[in-house]
Design a protein that fits this description.
By secondary structure, the protein is mostly helical. It has a single domain, classed as Amino acid/polyamine transporter I (Up-down Bundle), CATH 1.20.1740.10. Helix content is 77%, strand content 0%. The chain is built from 19 helices and no strands. α1 packs parallel to α11, α3 runs antiparallel to α11 and α5 packs antiparallel against α17. The longest helix has 36 residues.
């Protein structure tokens, strides 16, 4: 057993990881959510995608600047440690290990299973036992690939990135052409819903938060900077270039989908109907198969982060049983014990996702976890933006004089962008649900109950931080 990870990934793999982790599932089912939140207002939906895209480009630019200065084990934790110290870095790393990475990974396992079910059975039933069983299987398979052969996992990431771009680009081009001919595209841009009369604030905020899941994942590429060749040069290139590619592809795809079916149809049935209308039954099935591969590619990238996250803390002699979890297998060059821990936490979050979002009480129909039910596909993502704010602020204070634009202007814009995402999430998952429930004589404030779970998990993590410090004394 050792404690060192080898340099084994190149620039192409890093770019494919940024693009491959982000593109894969969110755009396929969040496009429908964006239309629903904006009540079919296509221009407002595009604005939401643009705003979400600007946020990730600004944030990725700032992290590219940080990547030029700091490198150790895990990019995100490194940057937090260099700017705010070991305690803040540890707490951010603990959050990523226990909530952020496994929460997203579990959702991707479900999405992959959901699209597989549609592919083989022809209809969507996201809450059935088949989807649960297949979600568990996909988690285990993704873990096995990463744990037994990280090189194969990296190659799969490159290959799946190429596959996942096909349905997006094909729909972007063909869907737009078909839509211009049949009038769907023109009709979509001329459709102004009741949003104009009720105000764009709440619908736009909800739509932007929905795009957050589709856009999220680019920061996970920093989890391999200790394994990336010439990372100080290659990681910044991968972050910025990858983000630009993602934003362009998403907006073009969103416009293309509108050409395949009427807005009302897409809102009710999602993008698959647009695929079938344009490419027929066989073509639609083939593209749906590519979507499954796309989702699995994203799942693979997220599992890369989940299997390394605890190791990033343990390598600093922090967290529970750091000596055990920082061991690296001589055979696979993987942190084996940390990987198993990551898989188990993913399984816990998968069960929570089903209970909070898919399974209802047999009598009342309300979520299994009652008032403690929240959207684990969006709120943890927005929380990570809250963690970015102090990092950008302190970096600007420490290094502002070196380069005004890169080290002051861009971090300030990054702070504004991150703060906007936090505000939008509170509005969409707090204020709006509260007002709607109050009108019906009930109480609902999902963001509040998420914060309770978050605080409890962070208090537990703080205990282990103190414990590890005592062990070192």
């Amino acid at each position: 057993m050792g404690t060192e990870l080898k340099k084994k990934y190149g620039l192409v793999t890093a770019i494919c990881m940024v693009v491959g982790i982000v593109i894969g599932s969110g755009v396929f089912f969040k496009a429908q959510n964006v239309l629903q939140y904006t009540q079919g207002n296509m221009p407002l939906g595009i604005l939401a995608w643009i705003i979400g895209g600007i946020v990730i480009i600004v944030c990725s630019y700032n992290f590219a600047t940080l990547a030029n200065k700091y490198e150790k084990v895990n990019g995100l934790v490194d940057y937090a440690e260099a700017t705010l110290g070991s305690r803040y870095a540890y707490m951010l790393g603990w959050f990523a290990t226990t909530i952020y990475y496994p929460g997203m990974t579990s959702v991707l396992a479900w999405v992959s299973a959901r699209y597989t079910h549609v592919l083989f059975f022809g209809y969507d039933d996201p809450a059935n036992s088949f989807c649960l069983a297949l979600s568990c299987l996909y988690l285990c398979l993704s873990y096995a690939i990463n744990a037994l052969s990280p090189v194969i996992a990296g190659k799969f990431q490159v290959g799946s990135t190429a596959v996942k771009l096909v349905p997006l680009l094909v729909m972007a081009v063909v869907g737009t052409i078909v839509g211009l001919k049949n009038g769907n595209t023109a009709s979509a841009f001329q459709t102004w819903s009741m949003v104009e009369q009720t105000g764009v604030g709440a619908p736009l905020f909800a739509a932007v938060v929905a795009t957050a899941f589709a856009y999220e994942g680019w920061i996970i590429a920093t989890s391999i900077n200790a394994e990336l060749k010439n990372s100080k040069k290659n990681l910044p290139i991968a972050l910025v270039l990858g983000s630009l590619i993602i934003v362009a592809v998403y907006i073009l795809y969103y416009i293309g989908v509108a050409g395949g079916a009427e807005i009302s149809v897409i809102m009710a049935e999602g993008a698959p109907q647009a695929f079938k209308n344009i490419f027929g039954s066989f073509g639609g099935t083939a593209l749906n198969a590519m979507i499954v591969v796309s989702c699995l590619g994203t799942l693979n990238g997220l599992m890369v982060a989940s299997t390394r996250s605890l190791y990033a803390l343990s390598a600093r002699n922090q967290g529970p049983k750091s000596k055990m979890f920082k061991e690296v297998s001589a055979e696979t060059n993987m942190p084996a014990n940390a990987s198993v821990f990551g898989l188990l936490v993913c399984a816990v979050w998968l069960f929570y996702f089903f209970g909070a979002n898919l399974w209802g009480h047999p009598e009342t129909g309300k979520p299994l976890f009652g008032i403690f039910s929240f959207d684990s596909s969006e709120l943890p993502i927005v929380t990570i933006y809250a963690f970015y704010i102090p990092i950008f602020l302190v970096f600007a204070i420490k290094h502002g004089k070196e380069n005004i634009f890169k080290n002051i202007v861009m971090p300030v814009i990054g702070i504004i962008a991150a703060a906007f995402m936090v505000f939008a999430a509170v509005y969409a998952h707090g204020i709006t649900p509260y007002l709607n429930a109050k009108a019906e004589g009930e109480f609902s404030f999902p963001v509040l109950f998420y914060l309770i779970v978050f605080v409890v998990v962070m208090i537990i993590g703080s205990f282990f931080y103190k414990k590890s410090n005592k062990e070192k004394e």
